[in-house]
Design goal:
Blueprint: E1 3-7, E2 13-17, H1 26-38, E3 49-53, E4 59-64, H2 95-102, E5 112-117, H3 121-130, E6 134-139, H4 146-158, E7 161-164
Parallel strand pairs: 5-6, 6-7
Antiparallel strand pairs: 1-2, 3-4, 3-5
Helix pairs in contact: 3-4
Length: 181
């Protein structure tokens, strides 16, 4: 970046460097945190993370999909097919619900939730009940399912906005190398 001299009065000049232009937007930042949270999920087939943010761009909570506290993820099934009792579906808490529960009773009224996958109908109920007013997502791959159709119907009735995010960056790389920090 090229530095330029700026007159600050009384004949004093200070070199001023132009700010970076390749920084990420707030939406990319919070969606990135949601996606990074998904890396905590032990689900072998679907990893989802969520990040709840208030109207001042402060993170209120995060969550990812997994079993409830106290339910050993080595003792419960991760299967997607078979007898429903022996699949993950009756046991897994979705990222959105975990983020709401992880807020510890903090007021989420008017906040946004960032989640890579459009919420199911069960999570939609929790989102509405918690006072979250906007859902920002990347994918709605289950768009035509009854659950997602029900989510949109409830969001519309409750005045919850849902927005498919358009990202300026298709990917970001996180570098953990000490020498590069």
């Amino acid at each position: 970046m090229k530095a330029q001299a700026v007159n600050i009065g009384k004949g004093l000049k200070v070199s001023k460097m132009a700010k970076r232009k390749d920084y990420i937007s707030w939406d990319e930042y919070f969606m990135g945190i949601a996606i990074l949270s998904s890396y905590r999920s032990k689900d072998p087939s679907t990893q989802v993370g969520a990040c709840i943010v208030n109207d001042q761009n402060r993170i209120m909570s995060m969550g990812y999909n997994g079993f409830p506290k106290g339910c050993d993820d080595d003792a419960f099934p991760w299967d997607r097919a078979g007898d429903e009792y022996d699949t993950k579906y009756p046991y897994v808490c979705h990222a959105e619900l975990n983020a709401i529960l992880n807020a510890g009773g903090r007021n989420l009224e008017g906040s946004k939730i960032y989640v890579a996958l459009f919420p199911c109908n069960e999570c939609a109920k929790a989102i509405i009940q918690s006072g979250i007013k906007e859902v920002i997502y990347i994918s709605d791959k289950y768009y035509d399912t009854v659950g997602n159709r029900a989510s949109r119907r409830m969001f519309d009735a409750a005045g919850v906005k849902y927005t498919k995010i358009s990202m300026a960056h298709s990917e970001l790389t996180i570098n953990f190398r000490e020498e590069d920090i």
